[in-house]
Structures are given as structure tokens and as C-alpha cells.
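Ticket opened by: R.M.
Priority: normal
Category: complex prediction / small molecule

The reporter submitted a protein together with calcium ion and asked that the result be attached to this ticket for the collaborator who will pick it up next week. Submitted input follows.
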Amino acid sequence: MNTAAIYHRPESEYAFLYTADTFRIRLRTCKDDVKKVYLISGDPYTIDSQKWYLEEIPMKKSLSTLVHDYWEVEQTSSTRRLQYGFHIVGIDGTECFYGDQGIFAYESANLAEANYYFRIPYFHEIDRFKVPQWAKETIWYQIFPERFANGDSTNDPAHTLPWGSKAPDRDDFFGGDLQGVIDHLDYLVDLGINGIYFCPIFQAMSNHKYDTIDYLKVDPAFGDERLLKELIEKAHKKGIRIMLDAVFNHIGSDSPQWQDVIKNGEKSIYKDWFHIHSFPVDAYQMTDLPETAANLSYDTFAFTPFMPKLNTANPEVQSYLLDIAAYWVKEFDIDGWRLDVANEVDHHFWKLFHEKVTAIKPDIYILGEIWHSSQAWLQGDEFHAVMNYAFTDSIKDYFVKRKITASQMASGMNHQQMLYQDQVNEGTFNLLDSHDTARILTLCNGNKELMKAVLTFMFLQKGAPCIYYGTEIGLTGEDDPDCRKCMIWEKEQQDTELYGFIKELIYLRKRLSEILITGTIFWELIDDSQDVIHFSRELNGQKIHAIFNQSSTSYLVDQKNEIILSQNSELLNDGKAEIQQFGFILMCE
Ligand code: CA
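Result attached by the on-call engineer:
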């Protein structure tokens, strides 16, 4: 047995309170190396009297990666305390005991010794990671406000171009605004989404507004606070939640704070609001950008001199930003904050942020923009979710980019799932494209069938799916700024067939919400040579089967169950169904 691969860590994604009374325990072993794993567990104070170490509970093999198998078991405890260790049986017949003191040959392990066991000292409900239930049930719709709809031409910025008259360049304005969103709320209700994620709407110079000037003011080109309030109230009445984008890593160089630093240098009252290496700081024009970061006299977002990084360890900056965070929740009743460049802001600040906004609205959703492993932010006292790029990249790399095999995709997805507690996976934010990436239809080279297959595949996973505005009507676009095209509103130019499909997909996700949110995933078959994937989701005896065929050879499946959604497939007479390339079948068992 490869004991070096065996791993567990208490108080982590390997041992966590799932509900108030149930504890979930995971163990990692080398792939295909272990035959059985048993949990030995009991109350720490009764090991001598009850001799619970003589009893074992089998653990279930759950997900696997290309190198590891994961084993899981759920436990309760009437005393709300637990001590536990693992009895591991290798396929080679060797057996070991694994506990708090390490790995021992099973026959020589001192099972009666309390200190040999891992410990959950007490089930603390207050420490349990919780995601608001509504967030798990949400189908998000991301809006880039400058490009969704122009509902009020009187607020258009200077040099606004006619709507959709050209592919967007970096500095173009097309006049989109909040009135445009209000005007199309019924469109979004018809589509079926129930959450809007807005890219920034606060006053800023650029069209993307990630260079904030005033965090307390709606950008005049988008409307004003009164209009935002109206939008949120109307959305709430229609069952749509609203999430705003907080850009707290950095501020715009046009902000009064940074302008004061430029003007007054070391004497500026804001000099400690930033990370400044030397004075005076340079004031850059668009036309004279620094050659390299080495030429910057202060820390910035990436190497962008127009986005000086805020010093969130400074108590003045903390209270400034926390008041802003509280203001929009308290006064405008927003339902979520999406946090831009969240990984480059200190944990200390995000803990203060979490405390502040959840005190006002306990079921607020905090979503961090992190593209990599995010365990440190997902312990329950910072974020509820991250933008799950690492998970969905595996999906895209297989389906769309054809860079990896189906097995590698499943391995990547499983690896991501095993980084987090189950409730994290249930509430996370899944997306195939955004204002920061090329659009999914474009990545699919315009292949609509492929796009539908990959969207369907994502909708069947754990995590709340997000539709980037325009995806539903066939909007295309390369990397930004091309992915920020104007929404098409002329019916005859919209892909209404695609709209109908995505509407159906959203309806299906809502109808099967419980099983798709919490149901376990089981990879029934992954056949790399035939390019076929069959997986199921299961909950309380209910089961959904999904079979996807990406190869040009058709694939036959037994059609034993009711088909609830399909593409490129047909029923044959003999109780079989044939799935062509890019086709899929969803069946309910
Ligand atoms: Ca406008």
C-alpha cells in the first residue's frame, strides 16, 4: 500500500460540519491502491468504558482524480463530540491504522489509546460554513451595464456611438444604463434567471468602471441612486436578486484621494492609503504609460498606473471601504457583493468585511474573484463562494478547447470539488464566460450544438450557473473588449432558437434544483477512446443520468428511463437511443 499518499486533516475540507448535526469526514488514498476504508469513532470521553474502537463503519469511495481516491462518511454524535481514526485495507492485503499520531501497521496499532485518534472537540454550529440557500438556487445573469441596453439617451456620455454600430474598442461608449435594465426586467423574468450580477456601476471614467472615482455614487451615465433603488425594488418584486461589484483592491487614479497624493505628495493626508515607494508619485497620461512595473513609484492593480492599490491594512481605509460596503446593503437592500481582485486584498480586511455586511443582512452572498485554489477564503468568515474558473476551465478544456481527455476533465473537476467542503461546492459560482474572457459561442467556433452541450454539462454540476448577458441570443466576442459587445434587441437578429433552449435549461435546473444542488455525482462511465461521458446525480433514491457524446461515431445507450432533455439523438425501436456527435441525453430514473 502506498501509505505516503494517505492524507487527512481535521478542521478542514477533510472534516467539516455539513449541517448542524452531521459531520462529514474524507480521506485521501493513492488511486486504485486501497480496497476498503473503515472509520473507527466515538465520544472521546467513553473510549475506555464503551470500547468503541472495536467497531468500524465502512467509508464510501466518492470521487477520484487521476492520482487519488477519496473516501467519505457522514457522522452524527449525540454528545456533539467525536474522535476518529481510519482502518485502511490495501488491495495488496496490507492493513494500516491512520490517526492523529500517524500511520501504523494495523496489527500493532494501539487502538485503545485515545490520543491516537483525530478529534472534533465539539460541533460548533457558529463555525459551520453556511451559504445562503437562495444563492444555491440562483441562476445568475451577468450584466456589463454599458452594453446591456440604453434606456435613457439623455445620460449618454460624450461621443456615445450608435448602439451596436461597431465592435467595441477599449474606450468606446454606447450609452447603456440602469434604465435599460429596468426596461428589460420582464425579458429576464421570461428567460428565468433569478439573480443579476452587475459589473461596477459606481462613478468612474472608463466604460468598465473598474477605476472607481466615487464609491458612493452611481455613475451619472448609468443613472442615479434613485434609479438604482427603483431597479432593485422592481427586481426583488420579480424574484430577482441583485449583486454589485466592489472594487476594493484599488481605486481609480481620478479619485480625490489619489489626486490629493499627486498634488501634495508626502504631505497628503491620503499618503498612507496606498503603497507608495517614493515621492512625488508620477501622474500618468494615457499616452505616456510606464515601460515596466519597475518604473512605477507605487503598487497598482497589475501594472495599470490608473489603478493605485489601496492599503487595506490602514484603519482609515478599512472604515472608508466598510462604510461603503454597508451603505449599499443597508440603504439599497442589495443581496450580494462580488469582490474584484479579491485574492490580492488581505484576509484581515475580508474578515472585517464579512462581519460588517452579514450583521446588516445575514443572508447576503459574498463572492470573491479568485481564479485559483481558494480554501483560505472559504472557511466561513470571509466569502461564501469564488468565481469557479478553475472548475469550469476543466470543462472548457475538454469540451471546447479539446486540450484534455474526458478522464482528465473529470479528474480536474473532482480535484476542485475535493478542495472544498460540500456546502462550498453547492453555492459556488460557475461560469463559462464573462467580461474577462472570450464568449463561449466564439470559443466553440460558432458551433451551437457544442455550446449547448457544454452549457448543459455545466448546468448539471454543483454550483450556481451564470449566463453572461447575450449568451442566450447568440452574442459572440473574442477576449475583451470584444466580449463586451452591445446586446442585440432586434428580435429578427436574435437567435430565438438558442434563447428557447437556454430558457428550457434554466427551467430544468430550477425543477431539479434539489438533486442538482446537493445530489452526489457518480461517474458511471468515462470512455476516452469513444469520447463518451456518462455521469449521474443522486439524492434520496432519485437519480438523473446524463450521457454526452463528443466523438463523430454515434453512441448507443439503453433508454430505460424517461428522457427529460436531449440533443442530436434519436430513439431506436429496440429500446435503445443513439447519440450523435455533440449530442446528449438526460434521463430521470
Ligand atoms: Ca444612456
